[in-house]
Automatic annotation (TrEMBL):
SUPFAM superfamilies: P-loop containing nucleoside triphosphate hydrolases. GO terms for biological process: cytochrome complex assembly. It comes from the Bacteria. Residues 2-222 form the ABC transporter domain. It comes from Caldinitratiruptor microaerophilus. This is ABC transporter domain-containing protein. Keywords: ATP-binding, Cytochrome c-type biogenesis, Nucleotide-binding, Transport. SMART domains: AAA.
Length: 228
């Protein structure tokens, strides 16, 4: 569903990604771990078609991102470290803006926004300016923004950041439903327990290369034992 083949990325002389290949299939939630500065966010940005790799390619649903980038972006739901929300607009206005960006009709946007705001617990704050939301509430809105157009592929960079236990439960529920509907998700985390029972595989990024294994292995790899 989303595939990277031989992706290289350098910042100056520093090699961040050294020929990274991965494939996340329909119905899979895959966890991605690695030490700070390993290149996880860079990889997510490349898969989200926000950064162009130096070499290698990204395919989404079999289509080459170099040819169909603009259209394929609409097939992706992306959570980055930045919320990508407009702080001077209200919660509803932000979702209306993104609905237009994703090519949804107004009625469809309003219907979907109502469902998602209820789900993430922001329904009482629909008409509040984003500047007045707490960090965790912004993260909840960021999730609603990423899921608004019901994308088949989710790329989530530390999506649990700022969420309380209830919010984390909501996110896990949304991910489970996405997976059960045949969607694909790649999720960066520093705490594999956040994806317990959800992630079917784990990828560890270290020194520009990916390795793959089950959850316990990912934890040990993260701690630096037997990662190579
Ligand atoms: N625009 C940039 N300018 C300079 N260096 C960059 C830039 N983007 C990424 N890097 C470097 O690339 C490396 C990978 O960064 P990245 O943010 O992808 O790591 P990460 O694994 O997501 O880290 P963390 O766990 O801390 O979020 C780092 O050494 C970082 O300094």
């Amino acid at each position: 569903m989303i595939r990277a083949e031989g992706v290289w990325y350098r910042v100056g002389h520093q090699v961040v990604l050294a020929g990274v290949s991965l494939h996340v299939r329909p119905g899979e939630v895959v966890g991605l771990v690695g030490p700070n500065g390993a290149g996880k966010s860079t990889l997510i940005r490349i898969l989200a078609l926000l950064l162009r790799p130096e070499a290698g390619c990204v395919r989404i649903e079999g289509r080459d991102a170099r040819e169909d980038g603009a259209e394929l972006r609409r097939r992706l739901g992306v959570v980055l470290h930045e919320s990508l929300l407009y702080t001077t607009l209200t919660v509803a206005e932000n979702l209306e803006f993104y609905g237009r960006l994703y090519g949804l009709g107004r009625a469809q946007t309003l219907r979907r926004a109502a469902v998602l705001l209820e789900r993430v617990g922001l329904q009482p704050h629909t008409h509040l300016q984003v500047a007045r939301l707490s960090h965790g509430m912004r993260q909840r809105l960021t999730l609603a923004r990423a899921l608004l157009h019901d994308p088949p592929v989710l790329l989530l960079d530390e999506p649990f950041t700022g969420l309380d236990a209830e919010g984390a439960g909501v996110l896990r529920g949304l991910l489970r439903e996405h997976r059960d509907r045949g969607g694909a998700a790649l999720v960066v985390t520093h705490d594999p327990s956040e994806l317990e029972g959800l992630a079917c595989r784990w990828l560890t990024l270290r020194e520009g290369r990916l390795a793959e294994g089950p959850a316990g292995w990912a934890l040990r790899a993260l701690a630096g034992e037997g990662s190579r």
